[in-house]
Amino acid sequence: MSDATTSPLRHDPPALKEVQVSCSKCNLRELCMPVRLREDELDVLDRLIANRKRVPRGKPLFSNGDKFGAIYAIRSGTFKTRINTADGRDQVTGFHISGEIVGLDGMGGEQHACDAMALEDSEVCVIPYDRLEELSRECTTLQQHFHRLMSREIVRDHGVMLLLGSMRAEERLAAFLLNLVTRMRARGFSGSELVLRMTREEIGSYLGLKLETVSRTFSKFAEEGLISVNQRHIRIEQPEKLRQMVGTHA
Amino acid sequence: MSDATTSPLRHDPPALKEVQVSCSKCNLRELCMPVRLREDELDVLDRLIANRKRVPRGKPLFSNGDKFGAIYAIRSGTFKTRINTADGRDQVTGFHISGEIVGLDGMGGEQHACDAMALEDSEVCVIPYDRLEELSRECTTLQQHFHRLMSREIVRDHGVMLLLGSMRAEERLAAFLLNLVTRMRARGFSGSELVLRMTREEIGSYLGLKLETVSRTFSKFAEEGLISVNQRHIRIEQPEKLRQMVGTHA
DNA sequence: CGTCGTTTTGAGTGGTCTCAAGACGTGTGG
DNA sequence: CCACACGTCTTGAGACCACTCAAAACGACG
């Protein structure tokens, strides 16, 4: 396995100049824009992105209440999305990595309904909503693709509801790890190792658990040999047992 | 009612009695289609609906795995949507009443990702997806409206995640009752009385609780005078206290 | 070296679940 | 009409899982 992931998060790319933005040449295109275009539609993708934007670790890409104007394709890095209520309750609604889209919750509304914060230095492609609207009318495949994106987000959320509504702590954490490692593998990373960009508390918020419970469950998994834990480095030792844990209604 | 306004190009077999379908004259329009249309767009809405469909209590409108072809505006009645896994886990993902849209989870995909079952005899308006696509390209306001619908569904789901992830049993049930009564009031029903169309078990599945806990919590609310419970008849006696319960992070 | 945020681990509490029994309303057949 | 079955709902007692409170270890960083 590659040891590219062992270097602590200091992989700042070489001074990224404001290069010309081109979806059609982006190596992430198959993840965020798997759109089959005809010859005469090839330029549509490149007209979609306005520019790129860097977001340093700990900074918001957008916040609850911000005027909605665009959605964002993550080019590199990791984000968490979160809602919070007036009384201090808050809930992490998702972790998002390269090739995924954030901001759909504000689409068509007046303002964003959640925060999106970078968990490491990150970069996104800005997709202005009005441009998306316009190009969707011109290009059926793009229109369909965005409907699919929104629909998948809904289905994903329903999956989280299933997790929160019916799983116990161990099952939730197992499902979380398997989900994350699967998405990382689809991006060329190891299928058995991963580096968590989020704290135990953020994991807990996402999974409806307290941070102590998350920590204890990690320890238990490690004791049982299911995973190895070294700070935020996790190695999946027995993926089959984890899958079994999620897929077997106790 | 005359059906002079229905499209002449309808060749659907008249399985059910083909009632005249007309959004522009529907009294629910402001709920499910609050779209501001120009003079020349007024016919768009009426071209949107293919037909209506009745669904008897206990029968599915669509099921997980069914080929996706349309979304549905609920004209009357109540539905629950539910996902279920191979191992017997299942989760009610929502209760839906008149003026609301179901089926968005399958939009743009190949097949529906959940079940939708009628909790009482109900009727829906069928909105074929290809027609929606086509009309969305012609009519910007319609396009925006459907983006808004999908986005709101996502935001709604995030709210449920907050509930499931951070609230205790009493808070969940209070939030559930307040949400439901608010939606009913928007439809002209009482703002303080409601008839539950779902069982305790279905409520529990939605709220991530066991049916016994739901029952106990109803009883507790009744003891404290917050509500009156008579089978599935609920009267909200002290809405302010319920709101306080939800809005005060313990 | 000290501070800070994060993580781990322990001990005890408490909320929800599990298992169980009985009550209630409804529909069915005798 | 009753008797009965059935699904639903209520209520109780005990178990268990996750939470709370607390303390200490750890790594990062100045």
UniProtKB/TrEMBL annotation, chains A, B:
SMART domains: cNMP, HTH_CRP. It comes from the Bacteria. It comes from Pigmentiphaga aceris. InterPro entries: cNMP-bd_dom, cNMP-bd_dom_sf, Env_Response_Regulators, HTH_CRP, RmlC-like_jellyroll, WH-like_DNA-bd_sf, WH_DNA-bd_sf. NCBIfam families: PRK11161.1 (NF008365). GO terms for cellular component: cytosol. This is Fumarate/nitrate reduction transcriptional regulator Fnr. PANTHER family: CRP FAMILY TRANSCRIPTIONAL REGULATORY PROTEIN, FUMARATE AND NITRATE REDUCTION REGULATORY PROTEIN. GO terms for molecular function: DNA binding; DNA-binding transcription factor activity. Residues 167-240 form the HTH crp-type domain. The keyword DNA-binding applies. Keywords: DNA-binding, Transcription, Transcription regulation.
